[in-house]
Amino acid sequence: MLKKKALLCVNIDHIATIREARKGVEPNIVEATLLCEQAGADGITVHLREDRRHIQTADLFALKEVIKSRFTLEMSASDEILEIAKKINPHLLTIVPEKRAELTTEGGLNLKEQKDKITNFLLKAFDFSLEASLFIEPDLETIEIAHEIGAKQIELHTGKYANCSINSLEALSELQRIKTASNFARKLGLKVNLGHGLNLQNLKPILQIKDLEELHIGHSIIARAVLIGLPAAVKEVKDLIQNS
Ligand code: PXP
Predict the structure, then answer these.
(1) Would residue 47 show up in a list of annotated catalytic residues for this protein?
(2) Closest C-alpha to ligand 1, atom 5
């Protein structure tokens, strides 16, 4: 039987980061979206941060008009952003923790401490028929809580694995942690996505994990795009997934 391949969802936040460096209009995120999709992206992902450091509210309305693949909106558990999400109606909301001073999303949601807050937020999203995923660490207890509070889908944070030297003992142990967490979540009936810090070098071992739904990859693709162009940067990751 053919192995199911994970979908490649390209996070284009950093196209907007470059644009916001001059507060202008280029590079154009709509054009970037079309190029990603033509190059084989199965989805486009953006994070509307509370501080609006890259993606802006107006971008979501522009993207809604053009995205033909899967549209994922990453967001904190904020009522202000939920109001916007309701108008956009993306395919998926990925709820992430957000700290003002962080460079990127550091770690997953702390469901052990924030169980009530995230449960209430999920209920609000479900009230509007929005599909939601929780961005969490590959930790079995956290996965159990995600399941218990009604999530149908999770994204496991791969940042710790990605920060290890390739093929180091630490990397192998983190990889094993992600595999164990993913298998555990699937047994509970959860769909499993992965993301954070993934690149051409560290992705191959990740692709051995069975039945992953989506891979959300941003920084490494946009960084490669600066050197070899966006379509080529998307295509090389897509090819790696297809050939796994
Ligand atoms: N998944 C989630 C939930 C994220 O917050 C991010 C970063 O915005 C990513 C995936 C993509 O991470 P990276 O840019 O390191 O590929």
Answers:
(1) yes
(2) 105
